[in-house]
Amino acid sequence: MKRGLILEGGAIKGSYQIGAYYAFKKLGIKFDGFGGTSIGSFNAALLACNKGKELLHFWQTVDPGVIIGADEKLIKAINSENLELPNLLKGAIGSVKKWIGAHGIDTKPLYDIMENLLVEDELRKSKKDFGLVTVKLKGFKPKYIYKEDIPEGKLYDYILASCYLPVFKMNKIIDDNIYLDGGFYDNCPVSLLLDKGYDVVYAVKINGIGLSKKLQKKQDEKVIYITPSRNICKTFEMNREIINENILMGFYDTLRTIGNYDGIKYVFKKRSNNYYEHLVRKVDSKTYKYVASYFKTNDPKIMVIKAVEYMAEKKYIDYYNIYRLYNLVLKIRKNGYKKNKIYDFVKQLRLF
Description:
Layout: E1 3-7, H1 15-26, E2 33-37, H2 39-48, H3 52-61, H4 64-68, H5 72-79, H6 85-101, H7 108-117, H8 120-125, E3 129-136, E4 141-146, H9 155-162, E5 179-181, H10 191-194, E6 200-204, H11 217-220, E7 223-226, H12 240-258, E8 261-262, E9 267-269, H13 273-279, H14 285-294, H15 300-314, E10 322-323, H16 325-333, H17 341-348
Parallel strand pairs: 1-2, 1-6, 2-3, 6-7, 9-10
Antiparallel strand pairs: 3-4, 3-5, 8-9
Helix pairs in contact: 1-3, 1-12, 5-6, 14-17, 15-17
């Protein structure tokens, strides 16, 4: 069975994808090919060379401002806890002047990052498939291309073309033409691997800005989607702490989706439907009806999971763990909580 991994575009949001990759590794899932759009193509190229460790280190240490040519003042202004317009404008002056003077954001920092991390010859020698999507500005023509079709010495140019946003300096980087970010046509290009006859394609989406092509039903049945369980960072979030949060979210979201676990935002060890029915058997009817209405479900399993997760968030309990539901309920009950009907529901769950 051929398995592939497709990574959606979304700039800094791409940090989520390396967390997802490590969850696949933990679950013992190996891939025969990789592909993506924009930052997804960059991530996919490194993974196709078996450079997961290097990619993880990149995302854990990257200075987001370097990628877009923003100076230190702008980065501090955006990352400030008290973000105010005057401070933002003051911080942006230097960067904006530089961008205007250069007729757009310089892409050299992105190119340098690729040269430091990715060796073209390693990707070509890899047995893994690799492909990406970009868009030729003239005629607005999409280009789906695989590594074997990329001319020698042009790998970095094609990855850069897949990432090319209109805010960048509009250089002619391939065949004397200007190219745009592949997200303008297909931000999650699962067809790259489906068209190569892959049996299963895992697609890691990151809520990036862009279009996704609609698949035929038979094709879509071969795709398993991983999506963020909570709000992910902004496309150009300049905050390393949030990037590390994305990595963890990607890891646990993928574990929950692909592994044998329960949960929506948290990860719980799998239990039967009968177990959840047992938990709610002594909840009084008024509280039960309220929670069923609040979460718009009469399914005991969904009710319990949503109620427990709701209270776990209220109590600022860490998302990043694999919990036994029993232990998490006890943790929520500890020290009580102010009057709250969802809490009353959790308190009435019969654990024994």
